[in-house]
Amino acid sequence: MSAIEADKTVCEGIGMCEAQADDYFQVGDDGLVDVLTAEVPESDRGYVRAAVDSCPVSALRLKG
Amino acid sequence: MSTPHDRHLLIVGAGLAGLRAVEGARAAGWAGPITIVGDEPHPPYDRPPLSKAALSGEEQPAVPVLRSSEVIEELRVQHLAGVRVHGLDTERRTVATSAGQLGYDALVIATGSTATTLPGLTGLLGVHVLRRYDDALGVRDSLARSRRVMIVGAGFIGSEIASAARARGIEVTVLEASSRPLERAVGPRAAGRLMELHAQAGVRLLTRTTVSGVRTSDRGVDAVELSTGETLTADAVILGIGARPATAWLAGSNVALDPRSGGVLCDHGLATSAPGVWAAGDVACVDGERSEHWTAAGEQGRVAGANAAGATELFTSVPFAWSTWHGHRIQVVGETTAADEEEHEAGFIVYRRGGSEVGAVGIDKPGPIARLRRSLAALTPSAAPAHTAVAGGVVPVRE
User: Fold this and answer.
1) Which parts form a coiled-coil structure per UniProt (chain A) (predicted)?
2) Which of B84, B123, B271, B373 has the fewest C-beta atoms lying within 10 Å of its C-beta?
3) Chain B CA closest to residue A45
4) Across B275-355, where does the E strand assignment appear?
């Protein structure tokens, strides 16, 4: 099991994460990322990792 | 007969599209070696920060690498840095490079584009374009030494540089050849709103004005002569007047180019006219359009890589771009040139076609933009989601 960490002070609400993994990320009404499910099972790790890596401002981390 | 384990995927161009092609191919099950060739000395890096954070007054920025070395290692990709490509032979499946001939079983062209320059200004001290990391360092050094700068082109790049220069207290003049900036990108209402941001920040914008000459000294540029007859002193001139697809190396190959844009003609699966060759990013021309957006480059790269590995995905994406000018967050989503343009609320300009919302420009409106982007994405028939492709493990087949 891995865990998503989002730094809202860095997030610019660009939404690349949501475009790639919308069951884990959503840009909220404040324009910043909301992590919908922080814990990522092994089966989803690859695609959540791709979404995390695609953040243009490096606001996301996948730990573990 | 080669097995899937020794088939070679060659990717030319080490930007976002090239890197995403590696990831797309691995996710679709490409088992053989992958090589990514770039003409710069740096690992694959991201361009948006070059006209944003990299120009700020803080310490010299590191290369904004796209992936950590651990991720690059997991992808099992060999990166050839500082290697230029000269030619392509689609019959023998070889690419001629400054490091010799490279063979391939599948090829992804992701060479991006080259910033347009003005004749007579090329190579002058104090004159810059901004496309590569090394360009950004040059612009940054120039800004640090300038009191007045001239920016040619009021598009997104020019406007971001204007913003960085104002943040350093530099006097900024922006020249725009057309009567209306951003003519091909957004409607007149949105363009007006965006240009107000410049006016509020003290940027002088001159439309219908071009450069007719420059005056130089041994320190480089001193002044710029304008088509209006005016001469303005400037310590630096930065050109943001567009970019041409980097396709010179494809001359004489079987890869067909779009006569108008010069881009590589691609179908919706990013396949080119030559067997075994795909294209992605700024160089790719899909449906007669080069998107030149970060989001499209990444998605095209992923789809091109997956299809090179035997998948049958189609490129579909809701156009999206973002920028920051003078501290204001600008986002552009969907189709923003439709004639039906309305400012819904201050700073949120919506475009409609046949009564339906098809796009918007937002100034400090990330929430409404995110909602519209979601609803537009729901209407767009999407390619297979990434996790299906990962699970699919498609075995590549030789054509």
Assistant:
1) none
2) B123
3) B387
4) 277-279, 284-286, 320-325, 328-334, 340-345, 348-353
Model confidence band, residue B389 (pLDDT cutoffs 50, 70, 90): very low
Residue A6, min C-alpha distance to chain B (Å)? 17
- What gap in Å lies between CA B340 and CA B355, rounded to an integer? 9
pLDDT of residue B23: 93
Distance, in Å, from the CA atom of B104 to the CA atom of B231, rounded to the nearest integer, reads 54
* Chain B residues with CB-CB distance to A12 below 8 A: 322, 324, 329, 366
Q: Which amino acid is at B140?
A: R
Q: Is the confidence at residue B163, as pLDDT, over 50? A: yes
CA distances from B205 to A20, B62, B153, B199 (A): 38, 32, 10, 8
Residues A7-32: pLDDT tens digits?
999 898 888 888 778 889 998 888 89
Q: Provide the 8-state DSSP code for B395.
A: P
What is the set of domains in chain B, with CATH numbers? Answer: 9-114+243-318 (3.50.50.60), 117-239 (3.50.50.60), 327-379 (no CATH)
CB contact under 8 A, A14 and B386: no
Global ipTM: 0.78
Q: Cβ separation of B370 and A18 shorter than 8 Å? A: yes
- B348-365 CB burial, b ≥16 within 10 A, e <16: bbbbbeeeebbbbbbbeb
How big is the A-B interface in CB pairs under 8 Å?
A: 66
Q: Are A50 and B23 in contact (CB < 8 Å)?
A: yes
Residue B206: how many other CB atoms lie within 10 Å: 18
Contact (CB<8Å) B390/A15? no
On whether the CB atoms of residues B394 and B310 are closer than 8 A, the answer is: yes
CB B20 within 8 A of CB B305: yes
